[in-house]
Amino acid sequence: MKLRVLGCSGGIGGNFRTTSLLLDHDVLIDAGTGLGDLSLAEMSVIDHIFITHSHLDHIACLPILVDSVGLMRDKPLLIHATAETLAILQRHIFNWEIWPDFAEIPNMHQPVMRYDEIKLGEAVEIDGRKITPLPVNHVVPAVGYQIDSGEASLVFSGDTTTCDAFWQEVNRIQNLRYLIVETAFSDADKELAVLSKHLCPGLLAEELSKLHLSPEIFITHLKPGEVELTMKEIGECVRGFAPGILQNGQEFEF
To answer: Per-residue pLDDT tens for 150-208?
Structure first.
């Protein structure tokens, strides 16, 4: 199983792309602007999209993807998310005002897109790959994901602030190989991080002290313009781990 990073930044500009991860060729985790770098052929074979939460940097390309490839496909594209996130997408995006409701196109019996409700702790199995929603703590309903090949697991936090429940679940994953965790702000912006329910280096250090396993750790959602500063602060305050920067184009095999 292979995971390719299409986008992992907290903003755009130049080579920065927002969050989107491609699992093998047919499963997408979030649909930020990184998705837009795929070819039309690559987009057309994506069958499943798992959404962590409804914020724009994680769903920006979702409506346009469905519009671009929906009628090229012979089966619906499945959008997996919690009931709360699906309701937000239906109410605010696929509402015929911001974007057409592709769950009704070309008709409700044979749509190009379907919604699939997921629940915390309940794995969705796709051709032997298990994707399990994990609890996180953000300003809108949100989840992280465990992606399990059977041999090893990768955990993606999505957007979160401090969350004991997340680390309790992560510590149960005995085959954990990789952990991708957000740190959206520098410590100078800790007040903003707390208000918006993100992590900064000091909070990240406190959270990683709850981790009892030893995966490779990569930092995502860094803000453009603060990448070097934030990683410097992480290096100064995190003990026992050596987190690296998640990069566009990076691949994980597990």
So the answer is: 999 999 999 999 999 999 999 999 999 999 999 999 999 999 999 999 999 999 999 99
CATH 3.60.15.10 fits 1-81+83-117, yes or no: yes
Virtual CA dihedral for 3, 167, 150, 174, nearest 10 degrees? Answer: 130
What is d(CA 21, CA 34) in angstroms, rounded to the nearest whole number?
8
> Per-residue pLDDT tens for 116-135?
999 999 999 999 999 999 99
Q: What is the CATH number of domain 119-246?
A: 3.60.15.10
Dihedral sign for Cα 156, 158, 161, 164, please. Answer: negative
How far apart are the C-alpha atoms of 175 and 200, rounded to whole Å? Answer: 27
- Asked if the domains 1-81+83-117 and 119-246 are classified in one and the same CATH topology, the answer is yes
Q: Which residues pair with 126 in a beta bridge?
A: 129
Handedness of CA 254, 124, 55, 75 (dihedral sign): positive
Q: The pTM is what?
A: 0.97
Domain boundaries, the chain: 1-81+83-117, 119-246
Rounded to 5 degrees, φ, ψ at 236 are -80, -30
